[in-house]
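Z., the sequence and structure:
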Amino acid sequence: MTNLNAYLTFSGNCEEAINFYKDCLGGEILSINYFEGSPMEVPEEYKKKVMHVTLKFEDCLLMASDNPPRNEIINGNNFSLTIGTDDLKKGDDYFEKLSSGGNVIMSMQETFWAPRFGMLTDKFGINWMINCETKK
């Protein structure tokens, strides 16, 4: 199965924003993970910031995170389109085609949450994340 979702990035106020959207949209937070406890290295004051959160409302998912402090947020670069698939080859194919003429931010690779994940900006300036999770 493959799906397409929006992924928002915030400058340290993700938890406040996602709770606002939850109240506005009548949704439910399915999961929230903080930088603390992850293998990512962040300053001490950033450990309580959101590494990833998923909000479900109706048949929609809205995902978000706080941007790691080394990356500046500028309105316009604070969202990505995320393709989720359980087909590793399909995920690699999407990544290869979307990155053609664009900029690879993170090559497709195994992460601590998924067997394959990558990030890119396509040749039109749109940010994409490809996340491949195998069926459980």
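The beta strands are 2-10, 28-34, 50-57, 60-66, 79-85, 103-109, 116-121, 127-132. The chain is about 20% helix and 40% strand.

Let me know what you think.
H.
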